[in-house]
């Protein structure tokens, strides 16, 4: 997968004092801390999300990093990690169509607002640079706020599924 961003997106990140990079294993504890803090924030705000996320998915992170599929956003001034996410060719719950990249494990640092907009912008750019038509993700079905955010960013509902939980399948046509 090509990991280079367009000059337009790089410029936007610079203007917002952010850097985008592939995560390293040395950053793993700091990445876990993002998820643990976000999980605590969800609990404090009565949002039923990720009660056991790190426990269930902890072993996936080193693999995603080693495969160069896990990315971070950092503040340029102090190198503080403010977001993390995985983008790959792994379809997860989707039936692969050969025209999609898949976004997973999205997290932003508590206290940093609207970071998701930058993540979506970056991932759409990566999808375009890799000649893909869609960016896809799944999310918990009953988290209305999260589903509203995804809808606002162009991720249309394309299906439902059930494993340990009920989920929505969403995709964004990056050329619309």
Sequence-ordered SSE layout with sheet pairings:
Layout: H1 7-15, E1 18-22, H2 28-44, H3 53-57, H4 60-66, E2 70-75, E3 81-88, E4 100-108, H5 115-129, E5 134-140, H6 144-152, E6 156-162, E7 166-173
Parallel strand pairs: 4-5
Antiparallel strand pairs: 1-2, 2-3, 3-4, 5-7, 6-7
What is the percentage of strand-forming residues? Answer: 25-35%
Would you tell me the overall average pLDDT?
90
Shape type? globular
Major sheet strand order: 1-2-3-4-5-7-6
Helical percentage: 25-40%
| Main sheet record | 7 strands, mixed
The string of secondary-structure elements, in order, is HEHHHEEEHEHEE
Can you offer a commentary on this structure?
With 176 residues, the protein is α+β, with helices and mostly antiparallel strands. It is 35% helix and 28% strand. It contains six helices and seven strands; from the N terminus they run H-E-H-H-H-E-E-E-H-E-H-E-E. The chain has helices spanning 7-15, 28-44, 53-57, 60-66, 115-129, 144-152, and strands at residues 18-22, 70-75, 81-88, 100-108, 134-140, 156-162, 166-173. The protein has a seven-stranded mixed β-sheet with strand order 1-2-3-4-5-7-6. The longest helix has 17 residues, at 28-44. The radius of gyration is 15 Å and the shape is globular. It starts with 6 loop residues before the first helix and ends with a strand.
